[in-house]
Records
---
Amino acid sequence: MNRAIRHVWMAAVAIFAVLLLALTSIMFFQQRSLAADPWNTRTLYEQFGRDRGPILAGGDEIAYSVPADGDYAYQREYRNAEAYAPLTGYFSPVYGSTGLENAMGEQLSGNSDSQFYDRVMSTLSGDQPSGASVEMTVDPELQELAYNLLAGKKGSIVAIEPDTGRILAMASSPSYDPNALSSHDSAGVIEAAQRLNSDEAQPMTNRAISGDLYAPGSTFKIIDTVAALESGDYDTDTEIPNPQNLELPGTSTTLPNYVGGNCTQRTEADLEFALNNSCNTPFAQIAMDLGQDKIRETAENFGYGQELDIPLSVTPSTFPSDLDDASLAMSAIGQYDVRSTPLQVAMTSAAIANDGVLMRPQLVQEVRSSDLSVIDSFQAEQMQRSTSTDVADTVTDLMVSSVDNGIANGAAVPGYSVAGKTGTAEIGSSGTNDSWFTGFAPADDPQVAIAVVYDDVAVGESSSAVSNGQQMFEAVLNG
């Protein structure tokens, strides 16, 4: 009898131990994953029953919560929705969250560690807990201008403050209305999502930082120029072969020179002439002379290949590996398998503008609790030194000459010195291109660095990237 009782007692202890371990695992180790489970309806009711904090630009609420009827106490609404959708994302009871709604979700909902005291005080006082507000770094006027300049075409515009890394504008087109996805009408939300996801133009992709990325075209020649100057094998007086067609080693293919400028006027070119007229063959020759490791290292010094959160997740830009000379020559003019985000191209110009120092780009200026006390605020942070001050100064002079005397002249702003570089990337056999412009102004005291890209435009329309870059400069300099 005692033996049977002992066995029962041991079994009961084992059961309680298993239950205690399971409870500990659920409470301490699985808490976050269970809370994030889309089938956890209790979490949904908690999230949408809470007054979520607003997302602001220039002090104006862009995304905010309003009281709602039905199962959930609050619904998210968006103002100037399409211009900001790539930044704010959406907060949906059906599909969850994207953009800043996701990246800053804990702060907006009031669940971050820094808001623990606020949650305790709300519990003690019986008040409805409120989330924190998130102020973006973007300038509302510049953001609206950037979106309007895209004028319904496919493309992106990014503007950065070079000496701080603040993102002043980040527009992507086409865009979408996140109000259609934040609605509490589930059937309507699902219909809207299906329509957006089936759209070949991919309106929910933030082209500035994600998607399939772009071939940067001749904007990559800024990287080549830095690599050439850093090597010590080239200076501004070095004469480089400038044939109309360059035979690519190991192939029967030739790389043609750019025909839109004055490249045919010289059989040899210095860096200024080559950059002014965006001549292909000198930069291809530079890359083959220096080797792929030097070009790749220089690209990485400007941010290529690096993971980045702003706090939106940025797809890393890439420079290919294991290149033969022919592929390296094509990569040097921003073609082949080189891929870049518009943010990365703007970062390259920003680093040149900031004496060779790349600042970490940031989209969030400040986070404030519901009582307006500051929880977190922007601090400028050096990401890395991309090149020396001397090289950056020389490249600045070359980019200024490209605007004053070269094919980037459409970016000139009267009364100011502007640095710029155009780019054209062929995208298949359709006869269309991705059209680029990047640069900064004023060149002697930079306030803004920008990148503009248009997808799939006819060759005759490629100048629109330059002219719209000029309008962005004007808005900052004369605003």
---
Amino acid sequence: MGLELRQQLKLSQQLVMTPQLQQAIKLLQLSRLELVETVQQELLENPFLEEAETERSDLPMEEMPVEADQSNAEPEMTVPERSEEMIRSTDWENYLGEFSSISKQAQVRETEIPEEGVSFEARLASKPSLDGHLSWQMRLSHFTERELDIGEAVIGNLDSGGYLHADMDDIRAVVPDAADTEIESVIQRIQRLDPVGVAARTPRECLLVQLEVLGETDPILLSLVDEHLEDLEKKRYKPLARKFKIDMEELKHYLEIIQKPDPMPGANFSSTEPHYVSPDVFVYKYGDDFVIVLNEDGLPRLQLNTFFADSLSQTAGKEKDYVQEKMRSAAWLMKSLYQRQRTLYKVVESIVRFQRDFFEYGVTKLKPLILKEVAEDIGMHESTVSRITTSKYVATPHGVFELKFFFNSALDLEDGSQVGSESVKALIKKLIGDEDPRRPLSDERIGEILKEHLKVDIARRTVAKYRSAMNIASSSKRKDIL
């Protein structure tokens, strides 16, 4: 069979992801904070972009209109101005005399400090860390140099809760030739530092150390912590009362003492900070309708830099190619931002139409909804709706929710209609919140109540799944002591 070269025409379709299209898709799925950071980075890198100023006066300060004073008399001072003038002119040092809280030398030193030259970081006090707090106490205590080395190795293996996750071999890898008794002695001394119970290996050891420092010597109390923590966690109270030959009131007293120690002594020194959500959209009720307002607070308003744009005709060669590329990039970014905000508005508007009962009455009226329904309503692809609802939040009359919250599965009712799974979760949470703590509702009983009131046929395992998703314990663990 011979080989030959041949020309052939072939017609095919393919999707080409241009850099501009990739940028537009990326902007869709960015959260609000990430979007602000991306725009700020583009402002730094692209000279053709600049932030538009609003409510700005174009007149210089010296050309600002000023009312002429027709009289030569001094203007009358207002009451706040008189007070400030009196404070500045009063000789407070002579007035206070020896009752002044600071001495003259301290006042002189205070005025000599060049406050303007101090960096901003130097004026802030950093939050103490658990490692630094323990190391500081060790150096104030009677620790030898070798014990300090062992203690640093122990402190370096503590987790965020203050527990020690290292065995003797791990510590010996840092401090060679350290005996087990020597390491254990240092660990016990660290456990008595502040916070008490830190460097414990187990919750049992942590609670026992804190009870020892509190001076608790009751054998029943120590036995409950040492041997029956699992029974207490699962609320097996009656067998414990029979074993120790005590009534439920005495057992309740012991439980109150056990709850005083902190099972996570190092949590107060954790560096984790709370994350605050800034809504991307606000939905307000105005009369019988709902108004959608996009949150553009903090988002720079972009415009083209006219100075660089006017110099476009004066460039040539590679400089012109660079200028044209940056100009196209700036224009495309502004267009992509506009498309992102427009898409977000259309998606929220569609969600409000589908979930109007939720915006009127709350979570219990949330209907089943899928991405396809919103995509068909606004004439977009499902992937676009999925991207624009990722990490976006909306402030409603009933609280702040993620946009993904409004898309939930359906459960069939006896009359043939459907109810959203989030509505069922809200009802389960309400039933558990209103239950008798001494007789908590079981998953099976919750399913029966939902069938009676909501007419929804839901299995016990489905109730357990929804309850676990909301981080609610089982009925045995929710039960209070009698």
---
Amino acid sequence: MAKVTTIIDIGSNSMRMVVLEKSSRFAFNLINETKARVKISEGCYENGGNLQELPMQRAFNSLESFLSISKSLKSRKIICVATSALRDAPNSNLFLKKVRNELGLNIKIINGVKEAYYGGVATMNLIYEEEFITVDIGGGSTEFAIVRNGQIEKCISLDVGTVRLNELFFSKDNIEGAKEYLLEKLKEVLECGHEIPSTVVGIGGSIRALSKVIISKTHYPLDILHGFTYCVDLNRHILEQIVNAKNSNTLKHIGIKKDRFDTIKEGTFIFKTILDELNIKRVVTSGAGVREGVYLTDLLRNSNNKFPANFNVSVKSLLDRFQIDEKQSAYLGRNAREIFDVLKPLHELDDKYRHLLVIASKLNSLGTTLNFYKSNDNTFDFILSGLNYGFLHSSRVTIAHTIKFSKKSLPQKRDLKHFESLLPPIEKMQWLSFMISLNLTLNQDMSMPKLNYKLKDNKLKICFEKSIFLIENEIAKLESPKGLKVKLSC
């Protein structure tokens, strides 16, 4: 696969592009994301599904700009897919031919089931969930993929979208007609023969806009959409406020951005109805969707469209991009596991924290590339925003804080106050802080010494093959959790 790849997704309402750069076999990172609200389907549902001249021209002009960006970023491969509006339009060939002849770009129209599949591939690889149903609300259609045990069980596409419902019902003030239409379409999901999970992974602009409002109104501490999770029952009133909003001023007061005024009521109406009818309890927001699914299906075509076991694309991408020494990183990871395991009788932490400690130990040094003297703070900030895929928000925040407090002294409750709702109790954070600090100190001279650990009567004995003055001097300065003593020997 090309080192730099461009994926363009032409939807009924918006056209989006991502440019992704490979850093190793399976690792990649986003280097550009561009959106244009071209509304290519505008007016088509009232005109026999035919694309109208002005929307087609907007889409063409935007594609021209997208290709300019792609060329400037030295993209060697471009994949362009189109969804509901073009697959429904009897005159879509007019647009396809114009783009092919004048821009040299071939557009692949994908059917609804394939669109749902791409959303499923993206989320099962890039969201930390095992069992869920995706909901991808677009302008012309809504897609569903049921994912269980890391496999896609069923894909469904319904002709229900924000633009379609607006032109057929909302613009005519026929909300009851919209409800009847939507409920009739939803029977295909309810009667699909598969158990519907109680968790939705939400894809698409409408669902992300809703999550932004919930983040703001609940004073959530992390302003990041991908992986943001909320309880449906606790936030149903927000959805109801949007559906019942009388005008743009009301939407603005609720917290909806201006560029969403034209579709947010329809999108929220669709989403709320789906949540109610499928009896959904929990929503996980996905920043990844069809575009990432198209990319991953190409990248992982020889791996059953799944990353290898125990592989995390964000961790590997950061290690690649910051050129962290592989041997040092692997050593710190192994040592973190040994320290965690030998001290488990004292800290009693769940094994999930071993995984987080290992990652924190491996990524700890990336901040030195930005500024040696503020390494921990730089790494903390970068982890919060850069550890994008495959982590719960709570895990991301815990890793960032573990690195931030890889210092001689242990963190105090006041240090964790802002992110308290996403962090484990202070006692657990102090243990994680101590264990990473010990790990880094034991390899302070980067010699990767061979170590042996023994715990007896709350005393941790660390045996070296030979004395290392730099380490001996620094170990004595570490603050240990209450009751633990550390002794070095050769």
